Amino acid sequence: MSLSIRVNEKAFVNGGRKANVLQDVKLSVENGEFLTVIGPSGCGKSTLLKIIAGLDGDYDGRISMNGREIKAPGIQQGFIFQEHRLFPWMTVEQNIAADLSLKEQAIRKKVDELIETVRLKGAEKLYPRELSGGMSQRVAIARALLREPDILLLDEPFGALDAFTRKHLQDVLTEIWREKNMTMILVTHDIDESVYLANRIAVLTAKPGKIHKVIPVDLPFPRSRTSPVFQSIRQRVLKEFEQTEEFSFQEGSGI
Amino acid sequence: MSLSIRVNEKAFVNGGRKANVLQDVKLSVENGEFLTVIGPSGCGKSTLLKIIAGLDGDYDGRISMNGREIKAPGIQQGFIFQEHRLFPWMTVEQNIAADLSLKEQAIRKKVDELIETVRLKGAEKLYPRELSGGMSQRVAIARALLREPDILLLDEPFGALDAFTRKHLQDVLTEIWREKNMTMILVTHDIDESVYLANRIAVLTAKPGKIHKVIPVDLPFPRSRTSPVFQSIRQRVLKEFEQTEEFSFQEGSGI
Amino acid sequence: MRAVSSSTSAAGPKTVAKQKPTAFRRAWGKGFILPVIIILLWQLIGSLELISKTVLPAPYDILLTFRDLIASGEFFTHLGISIQRAAFGFFLGAGLGLLLGLVIGFSKIAEDYLDPSLQMLRTVPHLAVTPLFILWFGFDELSKVLLIALGAFFPVYINTFSGIRGVDSKLFDVARVLEFHWCKQVTKLILPASLPNILLGIRLSLGVSWLGLVVAELMGSSAGVGYMIMDARQFSQTDKVFVGILIFAAVGKLTDSLVRVLERKCLGWRNSYLGNHK
Amino acid sequence: MRAVSSSTSAAGPKTVAKQKPTAFRRAWGKGFILPVIIILLWQLIGSLELISKTVLPAPYDILLTFRDLIASGEFFTHLGISIQRAAFGFFLGAGLGLLLGLVIGFSKIAEDYLDPSLQMLRTVPHLAVTPLFILWFGFDELSKVLLIALGAFFPVYINTFSGIRGVDSKLFDVARVLEFHWCKQVTKLILPASLPNILLGIRLSLGVSWLGLVVAELMGSSAGVGYMIMDARQFSQTDKVFVGILIFAAVGKLTDSLVRVLERKCLGWRNSYLGNHK
Amino acid sequence: ESNGKDLKVINIGVQQSLSPLLLAKEKGWFENEFAKEGIQVKWTEFQSGPPQFEGIAAAKLDFSQVGNSPVIAGQAAGVDFKEIGLSQDGLKANGILVKKGSGIHDIKDLKGKKVAVAKGSSGFDFLYKVIDRAGLKPSDVQIIQLQPDEAAPAFDSGAIDAWSIWEPFLSLKTIKSDADILVDGEQIDRYSPGFTLVRSEFAEQHPEEVVRFLKVYDKAVKWQKTHKKEAVDAYSKIKGIDKEVVENVLNNTEPLNEPISERIIQTQQETADFQYELKAINKQIDVKEVVDNSFIKKALKGGDDE
Ligand SMILES: Nc1ncnc2c1ncn2[C@@H]1O[C@H](COP(=O)(O)OP(=O)(O)OP(=O)(O)O)[C@@H](O)[C@H]1O
Ligand SMILES: Nc1ncnc2c1ncn2[C@@H]1O[C@H](COP(=O)(O)OP(=O)(O)OP(=O)(O)O)[C@@H](O)[C@H]1O
Ligand SMILES: [Mg+2]
Ligand SMILES: [Mg+2]
């Protein structure tokens, strides 16, 4: 019972030239697992998430969920897009509810709770053009959480948030994940975040995107970022990541 | 000889309700200084940058550059927007050149160099819709750098980049800053970044955005993130930042 | 500082909210300047009798004729009937245009089968097909309304279609992920996203329906502004023709303004360019 | 898997590039199905003589007339002259529409002063102003071309204007920061951004110019497709009228298809909805 | 809708000109008469002749009155109708207008001049006759195709030298502006007749209604003749034009309601042949085929059903 990902090849044709973006990406994600994906910018993380969500069917391979192939997107998979993608003609609360009716008591209540959770109290009636970058991102998070999907795919969901809001929402996410036993696949460029949240970390290489390493994180929750085990895993991930880039850094760069 | 910022009040009317976004923000930035601005999401950082750039004139106050009031934007101020804002009908290289002609030898050469610098070699002919989030952001950075403005305003320019690309571009930025003696104002949500780059760090509070503290960073370049001085300044910034939020964290959260 | 403010759309709703009423009124005033100048010049030409009255009657004469038409009640009969016809024709045509635009915009298959035929129909001249309309629908209101509807159909259809095909596919992906029911997809995604284009189509359609009256009322009618014009032309009553033309212009502008008010109301969420104030 | 691919616009250029030629050809075929069915039914009605030939001649008769017209060379004379007039009128009207649309879209002040007058002009019926055109411009080519231009002006004007006003103001901010010269602002920002709307306006204008022929060629001409139709109507030669109608439809569709090819070429950068394939 | 015996509605077409039909319409005579049979009357106004043939062909029109040229075109196109009466001889209804002081005093002076005319109208036919009478060839004058309402400004502004046109424009221009009639039908003895038409199928199915129609029309014609002043008033009011003009028009276009004479038929045949020669119509026709004087004779004899 799990999500099985097999992408033999995914290519885009850009200006006549074919560019392989993903190659031989094989992953199996257990139900209730938290997988984070890291990799250099442009290596194909977003593309991979879209394929898993069934949004992009033009690849060679097979994604299946509990044995059934995923061919089209649906509410069983939630998706937080990298660029928020709010509906500009809807207010914050309408965006969170999206196709659901705010007149329904249950929805209304859940939406209000979520607005509280993502700290957007007072901004319910604002339109996307009146939101700051971080606020838009939080709306997108709330929209995905409202539907309580079986699998939640998150594409750099906290990229535009300050340290504290980010920490808060990471904790919220962990809580929801443990409570509802969701499967989560989170793309991030923050190594700390990947270690803080994941059961396993998949490190991708670039050009084409291949799985360089899958690193298990066997730490109990809640995790402390300052604990030595955490730091050692972090170092390991950093080292693996470093190998995916063509260039290296001097000692003490301290990332 | 400096940039003087005075925003007595900046408010938006959202759905009939007036919301104060900035209040009593007074700052003086020396020529060649590197100022970073941090603050909680939605506190008004982007709004402040837009006011400084002359993009938003509807506020009470005065921005002046070497004594002359800034009323409209211009090339003497460069701006890297939080949401990239690429022209969708232009390729990467056209976006970087924007209104300048790529047929001119000098421009062509500089654009090619910048593409190398932001690591977009091979993506010159791609359209924005074919770019990953991080790639778009790098295009926006290159576009601003091409013009070598006197003041560069950067709104979370590295938000969508992985740790290594980010580090690389931070160093690029520092280099350019020192070489060309530009004035830089950088908004970020990454405290590490703010300490790594700045001469001074302005910490904003939320609702309304006021200047909570301005913290000087008296460290020589290049800086090492692992050095104890660095860490102590980082801790100080973190503490000041923490005070701007209404909630606090347990020890060892380790942000 | 404030001087610049309104040129900055990013200045946000504060400016907009504050300036709306006055800005609106001021804009109205400005709009009248050009027509007034033209009318004055025209009256001058008329008063100096530079041009024969039968060809170009002076504004004052037109006004007198207009007064007579109002006094005799003839004016309101014509106007009433014409508005009714144009309204029916518009709602029928634009309604169908919206519907087909949505369906065909939504489905590539429907496009392949239907759009080419519709595009061919688009350039079939009204004046040439009136015989067919007479054959099929007689000389009654029906054929007039249908003829108007035929014209009103296309701008809404094409604009709706293009509006839908211009919707950012990224938002469609969101709708797919959230598994929007197709009717939610229409009401919550397609309609709002293509609203700017649809409203544009409606504006053009309104104009076309109104203009369609002239041809439609050529077809065996005995009242209506279009009829009035053509009848007056038959008897070289140029002043009456001009009254008709002015009614056309006035009603056209009026309805157009209504749609634009609607536009302002419905498209408040847009963050778009408002024009340079300098 | 591949089955779904083309419904995903995010599937990217690979799919598009691969499927274009065949998809295009397939779409063409589909477009013909409906017209062919209609023509067959029509021929059936004609052959069974259900309707008088004067009202609705059968396709075969129309074909014969068409052949005769081609044989006598009359056809090409009419078509040539009409195309020339329509083309001149279109370029004049659409060109001006584009220009004014740009200027007025760009400047709020120009809008306040000019737009209301233009909107009033929009609903002035062609048939009613022909006498004025004759008075001012005689009954030569000039007045015909101008009449066509008058019609062609508005769709392009309105669409260009709205296109500009629909441009995301965030991109304008970028242009302001980069201090685009105004002509760069037009060529690098406004034109590309409003191109979808402008092309739409051009499509509508092409149709209108083409239709305008009918009224324009009523005006003292002795050749042209519009003339041919109205002349044939005068003599109840319905088959000839239908030849004219078919020419109108065919040329209209053809020019429209050309613009759409252009659309596909110029708007490749857009990431927009392509329609549901199911 | 009017097939079979159960006739519910008759459709009468009326051109936008001054015809006794308008008077009868105004006074409701047809309505009163046909109401006796439980038949409704529906009026449809037309700008010109051709659409009326479209109406007849489509069986949406039962009666109408049309001028000579469109009738020939209609017949050539195979529209199924009958001429059931002469409504006008049109001797003075057509003419060629020139501006006062234009220097054109004789029809021979038309040589090389710009003459406006609407193709397919009675003025068209008339113009060719005049040219012929002047001993000119059609290529000797510049014939400009203009609809009446477009020719009017062209004429006023001097863009054309002469204008072959009919009433009410003749009266309008001579009275309201400085125009002269160079020649009219009477001077060259040229009829431009107008006819009362019926749709053939209608006539076959309801011959008695056709007679009834002609009777009512006759009443209107007679009324106009005997109540000249009232008629002028009525037209002037309906159409909103000057009484002076109306009176002049009425003087020039005496309404008739009589059988179609051999003389008229002959004129028509000439016109038809001429149009065929010009290729305006594409087959030779015998205009006699559409003449049916039986109804008008019955109607004028009177008293066969009262
Ligand atoms: N629609 C598309 N058409 C063509 N190429 C594309 C398209 N989308 C993505 N690509 C290419 O695929 C590669 C991977 O893109 P993707 O968005 O998956 O990167 P990413 O790993 O999410 O990067 P980032 O961390 O910067 O968001 C990039 O090189 C990009 O140029
Ligand atoms: N155009 C606007 N209209 C109305 N309100 C606005 C507008 N732009 C910004 N705001 C409001 O102003 C506040 C500050 O926004 P701003 O974008 O400056 O925040 P920020 O500090 O950049 O946040 P982030 O870190 O999330 O980007 C927010 O509460 C937002 O709702
Ligand atoms: Mg990405
Ligand atoms: Mg911001």
TrEMBL record, chains A, B:
GO terms for molecular function: hydrolase activity. Pfam families: ABC_tran. The keyword Nuclease does not apply. Residues 5-231 form the ABC transporter domain. InterPro entries: AAA+_ATPase, ABC_transporter-like_ATP-bd, ABC_transporter-like_CS, ABC_transporter_ATP-bind, P-loop_NTPase. Keywords: ATP-binding, Hydrolase, Nucleotide-binding, Translocase, Transport. PANTHER family: ALIPHATIC SULFONATES IMPORT ATP-BINDING PROTEIN SSUB, TAURINE IMPORT ATP-BINDING PROTEIN-RELATED. This is Phosphate-transporting ATPase.
From TrEMBL, chains C, D:
It comes from the Bacteria. It is found in: Cell membrane. It comes from Bacillus sonorensis L12. Keywords: Cell membrane, Membrane, Transmembrane, Transmembrane helix, Transport. This is Aliphatic sulfonate ABC transporter permease SsuC. GO terms for cellular component: plasma membrane. Belongs to the binding-protein-dependent transport system permease family. The keyword ATP-binding does not apply. SUPFAM superfamilies: MetI-like. Its main location: membrane. The chain crosses the membrane at residues 27-45, 86-107, 119-139, 145-164, 208-229, 241-262.
